[in-house]
Amino acid sequence: MQPAAVPLALYVHLPWCVRKCPYCDFNSHQRPASLPEAEYVEALLADLDQDLPLVAGRSIHSIFFGGGTPSLFSGAAIARLLHGVRARLPIEADAEITLETNPGSAEFDRFEAYREAGVNRISFGVQSFDDEALRRLGRIHGADEARRAYALARAAGYDNINLDLMYALPAQTLQAALDDLDAALQLAPEHIAHYHLTLEPDTVFAARPPADLPDEDLAIDMQERCQQKLADAGYAHYEVSAYARAGWRSQHNLNYWQFGDYLGIGAGAHGKISLDDGRLLRLAKQRTPRFYMDKVRDALRVQERREVAGADRCFEFMLNALRLIDGVPREFYRQRTGRDLDSEPGWQQACAKGLVEPDCAVIKTTALGLRYLNDTLGCFQA
Fold first, then answer.
1. Range of the domain at 368
2. How far apart are CA 250 and CA 244, in angstroms?
3. Is residue 275 in a domain?
4. Span 198-216, average pLDDT
5. Total domain count for the chain?
6. Is 317 in the same domain as 205?
7. H helices present in the chain, as ranges
8. 347 within domain boundaries
9. Would you state the pLDDT for residue 3?
């Protein structure tokens, strides 16, 4: 492996929400009466301090504030954190710095303060522009609030905005899914994440599934019609659920999908780091915010630490890279796994089944392999 040649990102987890949505499986917790902003920011920087020896001499390619609802934090708190990061690690001049935002907690002054702190990309968890659909999803905002929040972000000077939008919602018709997408396209964001509602384990929806979810055939119709509408509007489909105008692909997410490295700080944050000695580490931090803050300065801040070795490297690389429509450069495989692609049994099997392009400068699926992506990935599971 060649760690110096692998981009390094930073993921920052801010775990509190006003209310947890019934479909959400992220590490999120209901906001306490008094948000411990200052204490949590100090914990994040202490967490980063302990990870620094793993990335000595490297710079930050992108930063992503995820949650939870990061926009519950003040602009001053985000500024303190980014100042602390810059004091510890070089941040590349053109680094993409994204902050996830709930339209129900949007304020102009905060958008302006985030921008002054260094945030240059906003991601809105809109999910739908249908008020009844939003109510059933447990969202705290309505369609008008989403449009207002978007306008506030534009007024604050953001020229890079993502909208998250879901389809196959309870009781959703094909026309309703297309109407949702039309509403998003009218706003003309630079990027749209358009994805199927899934019932994730350990969520309210998994325990009590909505009775009126669209069937598989209708969900496929929604996906295909929406993909065509996005293409017609000038959005390139570059990842399974990601669409972007030219020049606005998510650099942070591309780093994940290209098997780049990333530090993860915050309660429940995950990281992946390539080391000079050839090891590849995955770290997961303690999930409970209070326990994380209490233990962040000792070894207990890490809930899980494991080395990725052998065939697991192949599977994890493919799990990410094969989501990209255009694939990844073939040389990334050896550079980021330390292994030979043509010697991998899983690669040989996927080639034989016509699921990947065998003789190509990039690692990518065929049309068949993308359509049956889970089957393609199954070739690489040991």
1. 311-378
2. 8
3. no
4. 91
5. 2
6. no
7. 37-51, 75-88, 108-117, 131-136, 143-155, 174-187, 204-207, 216-232, 251-257, 289-295, 311-321, 331-337, 345-352, 367-371, 373-378
8. yes
9. 84
Q: CB–CB of 333/364 below 8 Å?
A: no
Residue with token string 């043509």: 342
d(CA 274, CA 5): 10
Task: Look at residue 382 and tell me whether its pLDDT is greater than 90.
Answer: no
Instruction: Name the residue among 61, 81, 86 with its Cα closest to residue 14.
Output: 81
Does residue 180 share a domain with residue 245? yes
CATH classification at residue 55: 3.20.20.70
Burial class (CB in 10 A: 0-12, 13-18, 19+), 294: middle
R_g of the chain computed on alpha carbons: 21
Q: Are residues 222 and 334 in the same domain?
A: no
Residues 283-307: what's their mean pLDDT? 96
β-pair partners for 123:
100, 162
Instruction: Give the pair of three-digit tokens for residue 21.
Output: 């949505």
Assess contact for 13 and 66: CB atoms under 8 A. Answer: yes
Q: What is the C-alpha separation between 266 and 14, in angstroms, rounded? A: 7
Non-local (6+) Cβ contacts of 194 within 8 A are: 165, 166, 167, 181, 226, 230, 241, 242, 243
User: What pLDDT, in 10s, does the model give residues 227-240?
Assistant: 999 999 999 999 99
Exposed e or buried b per residue across 153-178, where buried means at least 16 C-beta atoms within 10 angstroms of its C-beta: bbebebebbbbbbbbbbbebeeebbe
Q: φ and ψ at 230, to 5 degrees?
A: -65, -40
| Domain assignment of residue 73, yes or no | yes
Residue 17: pLDDT band (50, 70, 90) is very high
CA geometry: angle at 146 spanning 140 and 148, to 5°? 120
DSSP count for the chain of H helices, then E strands: 15, 16
Is 264 part of a structural domain of the chain? no
- Cα–Cα nearest to 182, from 130, 139, 135, 239: 130
Mean pLDDT value of segment 113-122: 98
